[in-house]
Amino acid sequence: MTTASPASIREAIGSIQSPAIDQVGVEERVARFTKRSIKKDSKMLALKLALSMVDLTTLEAKDTPGKVRQLCSKAMRPHDSADVPSVAAVCVYANLVKVAKDALKGSNVKVAAVATAFPSGMTTRNIKIEETKWAVGEGADEIDMVISRGHFLRGEYAYVFDEIAEIKEACGQAHLKVILETGELNTYDNVRKASDIAMHAGADFIKTSTGKIQPAATLPVTLVMLEAIRDYYYQTGKMIGMKPAGGIATAKLAIQYLIAVRETLGAAWLNPDMFRFGASALANDLLMQIIKQKTGVYQSIDYFSKD
Amino acid sequence: MKEKTETPVLKKKSVTVTAHVNGNGNGNGAKTDSRLAVLKTHKIYIDGKFPRTESGRYYVLNAPNGEALANMCLSSRKDLREAVVAARKAFGGWASKSAYNRGQILYRIAEMMEDRRAQFISELTEMGSTPKEAEAEVNCAIDRVLYYAGWSDKYQQIFSSVNPVESSHFNFSLPEPTGVVSIIAPEENGLVGLVSVIAPAIVGGNTCVVLASKTKPLCASSFAEVLNSSDVPGGVVNLLTGYREELLSHFSTHMDINATIYCNNNVEEIKAVQTNAALNVKRAVVHNNTNWMGEDAQGPYYIMDTQEIKTTWHPVGI
Questions:
Q1: What is the predicted ipTM?
Q2: CA of B277: which chain A residue's CA is closest?
Q3: Does A68 reside within a domain?
Q4: What is the pLDDT of residues B256-282, one digit of tens each?
Q5: How many CA atoms lie within 13 A of B203 on its CB side?
C-alpha cells in the first residue's frame, strides 16, 4: 500500500464483500438474452432508445478539431429524419473538450473527456488529479477515468479505492465514469470486485473498457457489472449507471444489452442518465436499422455520414 | 422461435427389398441386400460456408414424375441480408486481384466442374432432362466458364479507350467492377443458366448474391461446392435457393446492391425490378427469352453489363 488513507475509507473497503461469480451460470444467463424476439414497434423503440444512449467516441492521437466538430454535428442530429433522437454525449480527449463544448452549445448533448493517463493509467496520482481538474476546467460534463489495473491485480485494493475517491473529488460537479478495463482483469470475480470498489469509492457510472484492449465489452462482463450495481442499489439505495464500451458495433447486439439491463436492473435504468454505449460504429448501424424499419428497404452504409 | 430441427420428409429413393435364399442352406432365409439411400438436404452458400436458411424453412423438390428428390432451403430476406454483407466484405479483395489471377481461378472452377461432370449430369436428369440434353448442358456450362476465364484480362483492352481532348491532358477510360450484384438466375437450365450469369459478373471483379432456379436448384448447391473447392474466396459468390416471388423485391431494393440481373420473362417482375432499381440507381439488367445453350448467350458484353467506365484526366507537358 503506497498511500495512507483515512480510517473511514479503510473501513469501507473492509465492508465490501464481493461474492464469487459463477462463470457457467453467467454465460448461460447471457445466452438467453440473445434469444429474445424484439420486433416491429418494440424494435423501433429499442433502436431509438439505444441511439439516445450512445456516447459518440473518437479517441485517436490523430483527432483534429475539424473531426471533433463534425462528430458533434452528427451527435446533435444523427439523421435528417426529425424523429431520430440526438445521442447522449460526445467522448473525446481532454485537449479537444473546448472544441466539442463550443460545437455542442445549445444542445442537450454532453461532453465526456477521458482523463487519468487514458488508456493505460500509468502515471502518478498527482498527474491524474491535475489532468482531471484540467478537463473539468475545459468544460467537460463527464470524466471517464481508468483504474490502476496493476495495483488492482496485485491486490492493492485500497490504492485503487483511494485513487477513485480522489479523482471523484477532483471532478467536482462533473459525473465520474470509472473504466475497469475488464479485458485486463482476467476473471469475473475480479470484475465484480473492481465494480464494488469503484461504486463504494464514489463512481457515478462504471464502464467496461477503454476500447483499446481486446476483449472490450462483452455481455457476460456487463451482466456481472449490472448485478454488482443491483446489489449496491439494494444495499445503499443509490443508483449507479453502466456503460459498456468497445466492440458493440451492431444494433442487434445493442438491443441484447438493453434486454440485459431491463431484466437485471429494471426500466429505471433504461435511459441515457443511467445507461450508455461507448461506441463509434454503432450509431450508424442503429440509424440503418431505424431507416430499414421505416422503409422496409435494407440500407447501405454508403448513404450515412461517417462521423 | 421457429423450430429449426424439422425432420426432413425425404421419400426413400429406389429402395428395393429383395429376399434371397442362401445357397449353402445355412440359414434362416430372407436378407436385404439394399440399403437406405442417404439423400442430401441441400444447404445454401453464404460467405464461403454452407448454412441452412436462418428461417428454418424448406421446400420439397419434386422430379417431373412427382417423386420427391430432396429438400431445399427456402431462404428468407435475412439470408439475403447476410449474403449481401458477405459479398460487400469480399468485394475489395476480389476486385483488387489481378485480372490474370481471376482468370486462373475461373479456369480452376472449370476444372472442378469437369471432375463432377457425372454428378451434374445425373442431377439434371433427375430434374427432367434427357441424358443427352443433360450432357450437352454440362459441356456447355464448363465451356462457358472456360470462355470467361479467357476474357479475364482481355475485355479491359477492348472496352478501354484513349480519348482525344482539347487540353493538354492524357484522357483515358477503362471499365471497373460495379460492386455487389444480385442475380435472379434463369428458371430453366439449372446449370448453364446459373453459370452464364455468375461467370461474367465475377470475372469482371464483382461479387454476387444469386437466387437459383426454384424448379431446378440441384446443380446450384453442387456448383457451390465446386466454388468452395476452387480458390474462389468466400463471399464472392453467394447462392440462395427459394421462391422468387418472396425475394425479388429485396433483391432489387437493397441499397447495398449496386446492380441487379434478372433472367426471366415475367413482365410484371421485370417492371418491379426496374422500378425498385431506381431507389439507389442500381444497374438493372434484364435477360428475357435468352437461349442459354446458344452461342449468343455469351460474350464480352455480358461482362460489360456489370462494369462502370471510369475516365481519368492526366495532365501532360508539351
A1: 0.84
A2: A297
A3: yes
A4: 999 999 999 999 999 999 999 999 999
A5: 34
